[in-house]
Amino acid sequence: MLDIKLLEKITSIPSPSGYTFHLINYIENYLKDLGYKPFKNQKGNLFVEVKGKTNYKIALSAHVDTLGLMIRSIDSTGKIMFAPIGGPLLNTYDGEYCKIHTRDGKVYTGTVLSTSPSIHVYKDARTKERNMDTMYIRLDEVVYTKKDVEKLGISVGDYISIDPKFTYTTSGFIKTRFLDDLASAFLLLEYLKELKQNNITPNNTLLFVFTTYEEVGHGCSSIPNVDEILVVDMGCIGADLSCTEEMVSICAKDASGPYDYMMTSKLITLAKENNLNYAIDIYPYYSSDGSAALRGGNDIKCALIGSGIQASHGMERTHIHGLENTYKLIKLYIENK
Ligand SMILES: [Zn+2]
Hints:
Layout: H1 4-11, H2 21-34, E1 39-40, E2 46-50, E3 57-63, E4 68-74, E5 80-85, E6 97-101, E7 107-114, E8 135-139, H3 146-151, E9 159-162, E10 167-168, E11 173-175, H4 179-197, E12 205-211, E13 228-232, E14 248-254, E15 257-258, H5 261-273, E16 278-282, H6 289-295, E17 301-307, E18 317-319, H7 320-335
Parallel strand pairs: 3-12, 3-13, 13-17, 14-16
Antiparallel strand pairs: 1-2, 2-12, 4-5, 4-9, 6-7, 6-9, 7-8, 10-11, 11-18, 14-15, 14-17
The site of zinc ion (ZN) has 6 residues, from helix 4.
């Protein structure tokens, strides 16, 4: 049984790319409490090795960085303008509550709005395109000038996180921001818990990898010596694709190229033989930590699977069955390698 409370907890910790320490610290402590010895590299990726019966080493990766924003300027009236971190669908940010994290540790709340935010005042309130030049942060503080904002300790370069709005419906849907890729990080944590609680020694040595810069392209670009990597990241849903929120998606190819033929074929065979609800798809506008690892020059095999996530980089949603199918496929792959 997957403990969805843990998924809710990790989505509640702000973690845009480059500002992932709070979530990484939480995961590090969680793993230490389980009895593991996690370690980090310089850029903050977190690793846990689980010794197996052989020295063949399989990495299982998920990224814990999310999309977000960063302050790019403050105008004379105190409007906070921003730049995106990663590739959020900014029109879905219109009206969202957010938090500003100053570099001296203060947190302020606000709302992301369009610069034509009132229907009674602006003719183009409905039609204005939502992009970083037509949106701003309305700060929940009494400010009328740039100086007023700066006096609060708020500055260009401060991170802005978006409230995730986690909801688990009685029909089994989990809707929240940042299922990409916290849903997968959650599954890896659940797997680590299962290995520990049942005292399991896997056939091969496993290296669990929680990366911190995937959304900006270089999360897993360097990785300690492993033979292969099973990347767990969101499965795409939409036009031309067959995946649903109840399925585990096996990605044969994305925009960065095809994944390892043998690994992918093995995943498909295991999914088929074990009656998992699965899809094989090609993701048109996508690359993963596997792409980053290969481009980083690592000599590895690489495959990509993940729960079907609808409306990605917007208001994302998946289903408990999608998480369960993905969890089963991860385990089947490790147990049958
Ligand atoms: Zn992702």
